[in-house]
Design a protein that fits this description.
By secondary structure, the chain is mainly beta. The chain is built from two helices and nine strands; from the N terminus they run ββββββαβββα.
């Protein structure tokens, strides 16, 4: 997707070497040894603290993250990222009260700030 872009920096406050990313990247190690800040120019991204989209995942939207590790309480640098494609059509999601699709089912077709409110 040509309109998605994030720039990663080795050091905090957008210092040091940088790597510009315009799509999914499973491992930053060939581009930079560490990443301590980033600037999301467009799109929404999931960032992971392990290569190949593993480990803890963090949601980043458009903005500047001069010291994201402190902001999110992260112990490790970002090691991989995946863009979240924009979807403009209608959608439907079913959630269930218990495991294995058991219990009360609720179908959502619009935004929901708090799922628990829907079950009261």
């Amino acid at each position: 997707n040509a309109n998605m872009k994030v720039t990663f920096f080795e050091d905090r406050n957008f210092q040091g070497r940088s790597y510009e990313c315009m799509g999914d990247c499973g491992d930053f190690s060939s581009y930079m040894s560490r990443c301590h800040s980033c600037r999301v120019d467009s799109g929404c991204w999931m960032m992971y603290d392990q290569p190949n989209y593993m480990g803890s995942g963090y949601f980043f939207r458009r903005g500047e993250y001069a010291d994201y590790m402190s902001m999110f309480g992260m112990n490790n640098c970002i090691r991989s990222c995946r863009m979240i494609p924009m979807y403009r059509g209608s959608y439907r999601m079913r959630i269930y009260e218990r495991d294995n699709f058991m219990g009360q089912m609720y179908e959502m077709m619009d935004d929901c700030d708090n799922i628990m409110d829907r079950y009261r």
